[in-house]
Amino acid sequence: MDRQLTLGYSPCPNDTFMFNAIAHQAVSIPGYRLTPVLHDVQTLNRLSMDAVLDISKVSFYAYLKIKKRYRLLSSGAAMGFGCGPILVARQAMTRDDISRCRVVLPGRWTTASLLFQLWAPVGATVSFTTYDRIFDRLASNQADCGVIIHESRFTFESAGFKPVVDLGAWWEEKTGLPIPLGGIVADRQLGNPLIEKIDETIRASIEYARTHPEKTLPYVRQHAQEMDAAVLTAHIQTFVNDFSLAIPQAGMQAIETLDRMARQAGLL
Fold it and tell me: Residue 142 has what DSSP assignment?
């Protein structure tokens, strides 16, 4: 009987696109079964902090907390340029306004939350919810502004919200590096030979998806929050890129820079 390994990832289009081949066993590891566990990224962060999952997508902010237990894989990362989180509000605001605002963030240990805290002026009142509830919190006046990720970065204007700052652009200008949003980690207790096979299998799954994108659509649509075809395509093209196949040296430098900045700010 195959050994079961839990594989955590989000229901967002970029993840379901990348892992479709694994979920449907188009690619596999002989003797093992990678069992998908789908949750929002903050839930995945928390589960990994509790060492519940064998393999998981996590925010890089969370990874900095768990890297002694989990090894970062080269494949499966969400990283790049022009793909960062955005702070939005119901009305136009300046940076100075934020110090008097209620800000809702998409999870305590998401990279989006860390980037906001590195950028933000002192005084903002912060709360947390899942990424798919940010718009509702703003629309119901439970928050004045919020940091959006995933599909929301493509739909916030049509939903009636205004950009305050593109935190990804801020990061790029400050560091000159790609934005390290999230990556795939594996429990070190699995051992390096198996972890290498897992890494290769995830890379093969991504390559399969990029070669046969039409075969991923039913799985992507099954889990997507946003069903508009143009939004799904833009989402996948933005977050699944060459950085997803293998993290380059610039990507590793970006993770190290995020670590250093978080520690200097007292956020780790």
Answer: S
Beta bridge partners of 243: none
Backbone angles phi, psi at 43, to 5 degrees: -65, -40
Is the dihedral angle over the CA atoms 11, 12, 17, 18 positive or is it negative? negative
Q: Considering 24, 150, 212, 235, which one is annotated as catalytic?
A: 150
Q: Are 74 and 199 in contact (CB under 8 A)?
A: yes
What are the pLDDT digits (tens) for 66-99? 999 999 999 999 999 998 999 999 999 988 899 8
Over the stretch 249-266, which tens digit does the pLDDT of each residue have? 999 999 999 999 999 999
Q: Which domains does the chain have, with CATH numbers?
A: 3-80+178-264 (3.40.190.10), 86-175 (3.40.190.10)
Beta strand segments in the chain, E: 3-9, 32-38, 55-59, 70-72, 78-80, 86-89, 102-105, 125-128, 145-148, 162-166, 179-187
> What is residue 51's DSSP assignment?
T
Residue 226 pLDDT grade (very low, low, confident, very high; cuts 50, 70, 90): low
Q: Give Cβ neighbours of residue 31 (< 8 Å, ≥ 6 apart).
A: 2, 3
The answer to whether residues 21 and 205 touch, using CB atoms and an 8 Å cutoff, is yes
Q: How many CB atoms lie within 10 A of CB 189?
A: 12
Active site residue 150: yes
What torsion, rounded to 10 degrees, do the Cα atoms 207, 210, 216, 220 define? Answer: 100
pTM above 0.70, yes or no: yes
Cα–Cα dist 127/90, whole Å? 17
